[in-house]
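Input:
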Amino acid sequence: DFQMTQSPSSVSASVGDRVTITCRASQDISSWLAWYQQKPGKAPKLLISAASSLHSGVPSRFGGSGSGTHFTLTITSLQPEDFATYYCQQANIVPFTFGPGTKVDIK
Amino acid sequence: QVQLQESGPGLVKPSETLSLTCTVSGGSISGYYWNWIRQPPGKGLEWIGYIYYSGSTNYNSSLKSRVTISLDTSKNQFSLNLSSVTAADTAVYYCARLDEALDFWGQGTLVSVSS
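Output:
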């Protein structure tokens, strides 16, 4: 079965820190990779599509890179509103699998 | 601005069918894939399936035998039916639009399976 993995599963960070989250696909998905942010009790919000395209209204401190099987999400200067869980998702091969999530919390 | 809103019962009995509807406003159904995703309490996201505006569907193989997604373009709605539910189907169910990625989401609705 197709698998998406994320690392780390959780990270403790301070405001102003640089945070990097990695997502790996078990098969080549080209650039069909999206990143979402989810806060407790809320629906996920799209941050990045096509591996590196910032969604409308998303702050420029969020950035995505990668292709094939290895992708990263970077937050260059963590803000208080960025403490949340982040999911990657591939939209190349059905089922459109999500990664297990990375929780970013306050150090 | 496209908005999606899920509606349906919050409680379903085991072995019965879970039925939810997603109403799309502020935009057309045409040209997009319309998806259902669920999230069990405290767990991650699971993609259930989609329906294209033309009516073609694709489902997660783990649920395929129990899932039907349908479309009513006259009402700008699409629906989810999940049959023979068990407690493992208890989750927040989201509808969302796919355009390269899931760019617009409903707020989600909690469906509990219990007698």
